[in-house]
Write a structure and sequence with these properties.
The protein has 152 residues and is mainly alpha-helical. It is built from four helices and three strands.
Length: 152
C-alpha cells in the first residue's frame, strides 16, 4: 500500500485555510450557527472521521477519488477547529485586548506609544501592523468580540 509523508502543513496558509474557510461557509449555509453541548461536537466530528476513513478505503480498494478524501478531511478539520475556537472563547484562554485575544502589545498599549510599531499575533506567530487585521482575510470570531476584557 502507498505511504504518505507528513508535509508539515506547508500548504496551511494557502490551500488548507481556504478550504476550511469554504467548508465553514458551506456548513453555515446548511446548518446555520449551531449551539450544542461539549459532548455533541465530538460526536459530529467522529461521524465525519468515519466518513474520512470510508473515503480512504474507497480510494485505496475501489474507485474512490483523492478529492473525496480531501473533502472529508477538510470537514473533520473544520469541526476540530470550531471546537478549539469554542474553548478558546469560552475559557478566555490567552490575553484579551481591544477586541483581539492574540495581539501583543494590545491596541491600547500601542496607542500610548509615540512611534507606532508592530504587534505580535501570538496565535498566528506573525507580526502584524498596528491597526490592521490578522495576516489572513478573516480574523477569528474571538478577535471581534466587542465586550472582550484584557486578562493574563
Amino acid at each position: 500500500m502507498q505511504t504518505y509523508k507528513d508535509e508539515c502543513l506547508t500548504t496551511l496558509y494557502g490551500t488548507l485555510v481556504g478550504l476550511v474557510s469554504d467548508e465553514h461557509r458551506r456548513q453555515l449555509e446548511k446548518w446555520g450557527v449551531q449551539d450544542r453541548t461539549a459532548f455533541e461536537w465530538p460526536t459530529y466530528a467522529a461521524e465525519e472521521l468515519g466518513e474520512l476513513a470510508k473515503a480512504i478505503i474507497e480510494h485505496h480498494y475501489r474507485d474512490g477519488t483523492k478529492e473525496d478524501v480531501v473533502k472529508e478531511a477538510i470537514q473533520v478539520a473544520t469541526l476540530a477547529l470550531k471546537m478549539a475556537e469554542m474553548y478558546l472563547v469560552d475559557n478566555k484562554v490567552g490575553r484579551f485586548c481591544d477586541g483581539c485575544l492574540f495581539l501583543d502589545p494590545t491596541e491600547a498599549e500601542q496607542d500610548e506609544r509615540e512611534v507606532k510599531g508592530k504587534h505580535q499575533c501570538t496565535f498566528y506567530k506573525r507580526t502584524v501592523r498596528h491597526g490592521n487585521f490578522h495576516p489572513r482575510t478573516e480574523r477569528l470570531g474571538v478577535c471581534l468580540k466587542k465586550d472582550s476584557k484584557r486578562i493574563g
